Amino acid sequence: MGAQIRFLSIRQTAAASVTVLATQSVIVGVHGFSSHAHRRVAATPYPGFPVGRHALALILGATLLALIPGLWRGTRTAVSLTSIGLVALAALNAGHGHLGEAIVAACLALMLTAGRAAFPLGCSNRPRPAIALAALGAWGLAAGAILSAPDVRHTAGHVLARVLHHPVGHSLTVASGPRPPGEWAALIDVLIAGAAAISVLALRSLVRPATSTNRHLEHEYRAARAIVDAHGTDSLSPFLLRPDKALAFAAGGVLAYRVIGGTAVISADPVAPAGATVEVLSAFQDQARRRGWQIVLWGAAETHLEAYRALGLHAMCVGEEAFVDPRTFTLEGRAVRKLRQSVHRVTRRGWTISAYDGRELDAWLESEIELVAQRWHDDHPHVHGFAMGMGSFTSELRPDDLYVLARSPSGELGGVMRFVTCGDTLSLDTMHRVGETPNGLNEALVARAMAEAGRRGAVEVSLNYAGLAHLIRREPSSNRAARTVTRLAVAPLHRRFQMDRLVRFNEKFSPQWRPRYLVYESRAALPLTIARVLQAEGYLPRREQGALAAAVRDGLPEVLAARMRPPGPIGQAR
After folding, report:
1. What class has domain 218-313+521-542?
2. How far apart are CA 372 and CA 434, in angstroms?
3. CA 432, 435, 440, 441: dihedral to nearest 10 degrees?
4. Which of these ranges, 109-123, 215-229, 323-337, 503-517, has the smallest mean pLDDT?
5. Secondary structure, 3-state, 105-139
6. Residue 73: what pLDDT?
């Protein structure tokens, strides 16, 4: 832990120092490059070449600024390129008599070289082809403009004449000739600035984290399905198999993740044989470092937190999951009076509730369920969820999954709940209602699911995960100031995420509550980590990788095979 803090301090110090030095170089370059005087006194051995100290300082400063995010993240390639840039900047300053600035740049390069151990992350190590080609083309245009400048043509002609008419061995001197006209100088300046800007983008793409397909293939799915069936004990384990998650295997176990902006958001805890969970995460952590990714576990249970901390990770409680023991659940008693009234109200209005195992669904009933799912998604295009639901994806129809259906008095299917099975637990996945439905229908469906789970002998039914439920349910009561601050902080989130509404629904079933954690690497990067999790959950927009690009890279047959799954109902984030 101490080494991690020390390395983080080195990265932050290096990034801040390079930022100051690069910003100063850019300011000096812009100031001198914008003045007309520097074109007359540019110190360059090539007549007619318009780039002097100020332009080079601007280019080097912009290059170093482009590498700063890589330094902050801890990318090794960014360290190497930054050291080269600092040495070049030191040589440029020393050549023009600015010894103080040269010494600072050189010392900073030495510090980065000596502290390379603090930068463990790899990267993709190749620039995007389009940007690289654009940079080469831009520099080609700039070179063409330079060679076409009047003084370059004049100088080249004199050089050629002297070479052709002077004996070998005689000294050859060429007058530099007049400077290019103002129009040529301005054009060349613009072309060089554009080429430098595109080159900086190419350099930035060179140190970017590796990309991920964020999906898995059919054979990976089957292997992960077998591991979940054999070793899955957590209520979130079945949701590792969503099609929009990549899979990583190690030590006989598996974890699922999605890479967004260089952060690998891991779906809850890995599933593995007893004692191997942390080994699976450690192996993936090494893989993530090689690819330049930060990692974060979203929805982790309390079971392995101490072992995660031994890997240098941090944990914070971000909510609670409601679960009920169906063997003790009852609709009798004053405590569940409102729930009992909701169930009776649905029955009085002529609705019927029935339960089926996955193996009992025939083709006609399955098509009805799919139609309800499609109608629901037409009305709810934005489905949230990542670690705790199948989202808007089809999943394999499993024989032990539980389906609870609600039909109107006319016999039309109006509500569907799906509970996925993992060992002796059931986890709520789908909650779909379409058309005109009575109040309390969801409560009636859950109550029927409890009765069916108890008949099966299940020991737990997981209802919902509620973000920040521990703050909503247990406000600090002893300190009025703390209570006020908590309410002010949580109030905007209530409106955005409807957390209190979810908590109140869960509490109708007198559940037990299990904390869920966010496990992350860097406190300094925590705000960005939270943003990546919200993107994975669908609360913030994210850029998606094109399906065509994935097909070209991985082969169309593989992509199609990854999408071919046995038909099943579309799920909803819980």
Report:
1. alpha beta
2. 7
3. -50
4. 109-123
5. HHHHHHHHHHCHHHCCECCCCCCCHHHHHHHHHHH
6. 76
How many residues belong to the chain? 574
468, 496 contact by CB (below 8 A): no
Dihedral angle, C-alpha 491, 492, 495, 497, nearest 10 °: -100
In this structure, is the dihedral angle defined by the CA atoms of residues 336, 342, 346 and 349, taken in order, positive or negative?
Answer: positive
Q: Is the distance from CB of 207 to CB of 15 less than 8 angstroms?
A: no
Residue 573: per-residue pLDDT: 40
- Enter the pTM of the model: 0.73
Question: In the chain, which residues fall in CATH 3.40.630.30?
Answer: 326-458
Rounded to 5 degrees, φ, ψ at 411 are 90, 0
The top-level CATH class assigned to 326-458 is alpha beta
Q: Which strand (E) or helix (H) includes residue 143?
A: helix 129-148
Per residue in 230-256, pLDDT (tens digit) is 999 899 999 999 888 999 999 999 999
**Residue for token pair 């169906």:** 326
pLDDT digits (tens, 9 = 90+) for 298-338: 999 999 999 999 999 999 988 888 999 999 999 998 888 88
465 DSSP β-pair partners = 321
Handedness of CA 216, 221, 225, 226 (dihedral sign): negative
Q: Per the structure block, which two tokens stand in for 328?
A: 């003790």
